[in-house]
Write a sequence for this structure.
């Protein structure tokens, strides 16, 4: 006899035909227990492994069989997921044990240093809901209470950013750059400037305010919260750049800052 899954009950086990049963006994109740009601034997698995069931009849007969408690076998539908945005997706677990449910979901990453919060998961019964957090890849190991395990590959694709304009030629005035993402709700996460002696930048929402502070050329790199990357080249040619004077300290303040 085989029992799949811990805590699983198997009923209507027949050892001896015809004779009335007196009692049943498990050789190791840490692996499985056996109960008797009338002539119906019920086995319950508690630990993976092998043990023996012995049945005794009222007429003095006896029979012994091997009982194996094994892990449930599970499958996941779908068996891989690709996220193109921040929308959640659901995976359904199927098991060879009807009452089996999800016990845990553990994420692993290709690189040890990549323990990033790419996704999160919550689960109820046989359903797992995955929520993307940032661009990247991960593998999730799903374990059922019946002991079955299955892995699923998860990919969160980076957003695509468009900058308008995608190139700047500045005189002495500030100029705004609009950032558009193909992901709903995506916003600017970081703005990095190669040479801050040429321009500085601040941002709010999806708008960057570029302020010239010197002459020359530099690149501005933009990262969004959905992993999107974009860059634009800035050239400042006007040497007559207005600088604000801090009267209290007697110093020149360069307007704008890098976020």
């Amino acid at each position: 006899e085989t029992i799949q899954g811990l805590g699983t009950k198997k009923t209507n086990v027949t050892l001896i035909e015809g004779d009335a049963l007196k009692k049943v006994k498990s050789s190791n109740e840490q692996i499985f227990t056996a109960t008797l009601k009338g002539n119906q034997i019920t086995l319950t698995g508690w630990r993976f492994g092998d043990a023996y069931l012995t049945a005794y009849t009222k007429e003095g007969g006896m029979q012994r069989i091997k009982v194996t408690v094994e892990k449930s076998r599970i499958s996941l539908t779908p068996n891989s997921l690709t996220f193109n945005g921040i929308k959640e997706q659901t995976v359904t677990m199927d098991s060879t044990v009807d009452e089996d449910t999800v016990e845990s979901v553990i994420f692993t990453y290709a690189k040890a240093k990549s323990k990033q919060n790419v996704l999160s998961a919550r689960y109820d019964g046989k359903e797992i809901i995955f929520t993307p957090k940032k661009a990247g890849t991960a593998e999730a190991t799903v374990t059922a209470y019946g002991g079955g395990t299955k892995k699923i590959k998860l990919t969160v694709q980076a957003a695509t950013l468009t900058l308008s304009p995608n190139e700047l030629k500045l005189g002495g005035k500030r100029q705004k750059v609009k950032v558009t993402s193909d992901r709903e709700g995506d916003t600017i996460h970081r703005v990095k400037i190669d040479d801050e002696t040429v321009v500085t930048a601040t941002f709010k929402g999806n708008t960057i305010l570029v302020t010239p502070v010197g002459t020359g050329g530099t690149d501005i790199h933009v990262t969004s919260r959905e992993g999107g990357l974009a860059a634009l080249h800035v050239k400042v040619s006007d040497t007559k750049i207005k600088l604000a004077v801090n009267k209290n300290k007697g110093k020149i303040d360069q307007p704008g800052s890098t976020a």
Confidence is low (pLDDT under 50) at residues 243-259.
